[in-house]
Design a protein that fits this description.
Its cofactor is pyridoxal 5'-phosphate. One of its GO terms (molecular function) is pyridoxal phosphate binding. Its EC number is 2.6.1.2. Pathway: Amino-acid degradation; L-alanine degradation via transaminase pathway; pyruvate from L-alanine: step 1/1; Photosynthesis; C4 acid pathway. It catalyses: L-alanine + 2-oxoglutarate = pyruvate + L-glutamate. It is built from 12 helices and 10 strands. Helix 2 packs parallel to helix 9. Strand 2, helix 4 and strand 3 form a beta-alpha-beta unit. The relative contact order is 0.13. The protein has 2 domains: about 260 residues, Type I PLP-dependent aspartate aminotransferase-like (Major domain) (Aspartate Aminotransferase, domain 2, 3-Layer(aba) Sandwich), CATH 3.40.640.10; about 90 residues, Aspartate Aminotransferase, domain 1. The longest helix has 28 residues. The chain is an alpha/beta fold. The strands form 2 sheets. Strands 1-7-6-5-4-2-3 form a 7-stranded mixed β-sheet, with helices on both faces. A 3-stranded antiparallel β-sheet has the order 8-9-10. The N and C termini lie far apart (about 50 Å). The N terminus and C terminus are likely disordered.
Length: about 375
């Protein structure tokens, strides 16, 4: 027997479900929607963005997607014409970006996060990499920023974000802001600020800086990875470019309706006045507190291990420790014809059953070329 919904759900939850169903064509999740997503759900997301940032948001700027990844692929398809088009990507990097750039035939232009300053983004280094790429005939078209960081777990300082936005404005770059871990902040002295908020705080208007912001229901405290929901918010693009974005989105007809609903709920959760708010807040706070405890436990554990250093956990779901291998391990790796970090990762797997990815898998380089034979990351 199926229980009466009113016996197990709060009144506001039932009311919300009915409101959402009324927005969907055919009042069911099996029909196609508008290619950008159901208008009422985009309205809810726009309202959530406005509430978060303190600046208006427009439902027409929002494209609902099957997770953040399809939005990334869409923009790479739009931005990359041939191998001479480049995208600036942070290293260590989330492999989605290198794979998507390669898939669409472009060139990855790396900029290296500074491990010694807590994985800081140094504008001077980004500019150096940009100028070097341009000197090689690469037309650099966009800058990717992941905040909070994946796989490094840092949270950008607000001042650093202002510098990044100004840099993109001055250099004519599209800013691709991966903000899927915006709820995961563990450091007391850190706070998430969206790049949309930073852009508007600088007084930039709709046509001043092309910005694409990504959000996903796979991350944060919700973790609905298999539901495949998310969105991208596009601002600062001209009408002809927006038309092309819409055309590409229309090729896939629409994202799945269940994911669209979840994306709207993530950005428009229960309010304090709702009956369901107490249980919602308790579950959310419990999950985030658990993630914070585990991040801290790993940070402390790494700091106690010989030959390992690790920056503090600030956000996202990651730590990126550095391992200083002894000379005998370097020699053993060479004898086995393997890179030291890959050799270490395989030995760790064989000895403990623990699976790790060598630092080189994230594009990571050692602190200096002199120490390249001694230092690695996992």
């Amino acid at each position: 027997m199926i229980p009466d919904a009113s016996s197990c759900c709060s009144a506001d939850s039932i009311s919300r479900a009915k409101q959402i169903l009324a927005l969907i064509p055919g009042r069911a999740t099996g029909a196609y929607s508008h290619s950008q997503g159901i208008k009422g759900l985009r309205d809810a997301i726009a309202s959530g963005i406005a509430s978060r940032d303190g600046f208006p948001a427009n439902a027409d700027d929002i494209f609902l997607t099957d997770g953040a990844s399809p939005g990334v692929h869409l923009m790479m398809q739009l931005l990359i014409r041939n191998e001479k088009d480049g995208i600036l990507v942070p290293i260590p990097q989330y492999p989605l970006y290198s794979a998507s750039i390669a898939l669409h035939g472009g060139s990855l232009v790396p900029y290296y996060l500074n491990e010694s300053t807590g994985w800081g983004l140094e504008i001077s280094d980004v500019k150096k990499q940009l100028e070097d790429a341009r000197s090689r005939g690469i037309d650099v078209r966009a800058l990717v920023v992941i905040n909070p960081g994946n796989p490094t777990g840092q949270v950008l300082a607000e001042e650093n974000q202002y510098d990044i936005v100004k840099f993109c404005k001055n250099e004519g770059l599209v800013l691709l802001a991966d903000e899927v871990y915006q709820e995961n902040i563990y450091a007391d002295n850190k706070k998430f600020h969206s790049f949309k908020k930073i852009v508007r705080s600088l007084g930039y208007g709709e046509e001043d800086l092309p910005l694409v912001s990504y959000q996903s229901v796979s991350k944060g405290y919700y973790g609905e990875c298999g539901k495949r929901g998310g969105y991208m918010e596009i601002t600062g693009f001209s009408a002809p470019v927006r038309e092309q974005i819409y055309k590409i989105a229309s090729v896939n007809l629409c994202s799945n309706i269940t994911g669209q609903i979840l994306a709207s709920l993530v950005m428009n959760p229960p309010k304090a006045s709702d009956e369901s708010y107490a249980s919602y807040k308790a579950e959310k706070d419990g999950i985030l507190a658990s993630l914070a405890r585990r991040a801290k436990a790993l940070e402390v554990a790494f700091s106690k291990l010989e030959g390992i250093t690790c920056n503090k956990a600030e956000g996202a779901m990651y730590l990126f420790p550095q391992i200083c291998l002894p000379q005998k391990a370097i020699e053993a790796a060479k004898a086995a014809n393997k890179a030291p970090d890959a050799f270490y990762a395989l030995r760790l797997l064989e000895s403990t059953g623990i699976v790790v990815v060598p630092g080189s898998g994230f594009g990571q380089v050692t602190i200096s070329l002199v120490e390249i034979s001694r230092k690695t990351n996992i």
